Amino acid sequence: MTRLTPLDEAALARLLEAAEAGADPREVMPPVEGPPGWTSVRRAAFLAFHRARSLNPATAVERTWVIDVDGTAVGAARLERHGEAVEAGIWLSRAARGRGIGKQVTALLLAEARATGAASFIASTTADNRGARALLGGIGANLTTEGDEVAAVLPLRP
Ligand SMILES: CC(C)(COP(=O)(O)OP(=O)(O)OC[C@H]1O[C@@H](n2cnc3c(N)ncnc32)[C@H](O)[C@@H]1OP(=O)(O)O)[C@@H](O)C(=O)NCCC(=O)NCCS
User: Fold this and answer.
1) Which residue segment(s) compose the domain that 138 sits in?
2) pLDDT < 70 stretches in the chain
């Protein structure tokens, strides 16, 4: 069963474990200088990133959830307000990809976005990300490609 658990310090520790076990840092956090992989510097930056963006009320810009499947963290989902729009993001650990979890999480995020009263649901991805493009097209979003960037927009109001 796929559930979204609101991020807190305990969930953040589980999220870092999931990221280290099954994702490349470049897929789940902004770039950090240094050798590849989950160095101690990148682990600290991952924690600082989520604390600043979600957990610290003074700096928070988004809501983040840990994606739990049968009680195990397999990735993260987020919603960030941009004026009247709400931007969604998802990453899953490698073993969790291609099993329909992204589709379930997209539906959960969409329901949450509607509940906030946002005017539109938006997301961005890259042209080579077929999974993300399929997810966004699947909810009826309009996809626009510019170079390598794909922008998705789904109006939520009539
Ligand atoms: C992108 C991502 C969230 C998709 O989630 P997922 O659970 O793997 O996707 P699902 O299994 O729910 O599949 C959803 C749809 O995408 C398609 N799909 C998934 N992975 C695909 C792939 N690699 N190539 C082509 N199609 C793919 C599925 O066939 C399905 O299509 P359908 O609705 O027509 O049946 C996930 O693969 C991921 O986390 N990737 C790494 C991080 C990332 O790229 N995040 C998004 C950045 S914008």
Assistant:
1) 2-155
2) none
